[in-house]
Amino acid sequence: VIKSTAIGTLPELQTFYDGVLGVVLPMLYLAGTILVYSIIVEMQELDAKKNLHPWLRKIEKNRIVSAILDCWEKNHFRKAVRQKKSLRRAGEQLTPRLLFMEKVFYLSAAILLGFTVLLWAKRMQTPLLAYEVAIIILCGLFAFCIPDMRLRYRKSLMQMNMLSEVTQFQSIIMMQMFIPDITVLRILTTME
């Protein structure tokens, strides 16, 4: 509907909608919408503990993948220890090995999707240009950072929730302090 209205108003937009940007931009809008939706769902279910990554655990059991992850963990031991602490603080059930696998999965999926969309949009009429390949690789590197950004975001949400709980307790105590016949012992028993 939007496309036909835009082309009806400005016929010059036909080349835009038939070109690469006409295909890539709606996909970027869709990806952004899905990302925002997943963030909202994660905010609502912050306390829910569930196993979201059973497929990562199955892949980790593969002998070759396990050997690669062992080498990564050996070469990046300090980073793995820091990530383990951060994952635990954020309430994630992932290990640093699974987080690295997820990052590699995001990277490869973004690059594969980028090349697929670009080749489909060009319909193999012209060869890929260097800047197009560079843009796809940059998108892949951004996708590689998505699990870390999600972890930082989740950590900040946990801190905001803790601050909110402290503020609620303070307001309850402040309200009860000014009620006659309320003692500290009574306030503490009601808080339990």
Features:
single chain; 192 residues; mainly alpha; 9 helices; flat
Please report the total strand number as a whole number: 0
Broad shape: flat
H/E element order: HHHHHHHHH
State the low-pLDDT regions, or none: none
* Main pleated-sheet profile: none
| Contiguous helical run count | 9
**N- to C-terminal distance:** 58 Å
Q: Could you tell me the mean pLDDT?
A: 81
Rg from C-alpha positions? 25 Å
Strand content bin: under 5%
> What is the helix fraction of residues, given as a range?
over 70%
Provide an overview of this structure.
- It is built from nine helices and no strands.
- It is mainly α and 192 residues long.
- α5 (63-75) crosses α7 (96-122) and α7 (96-122) packs across α8.
- The N and C termini lie far apart (58 Å).
- The mean pLDDT is 81.
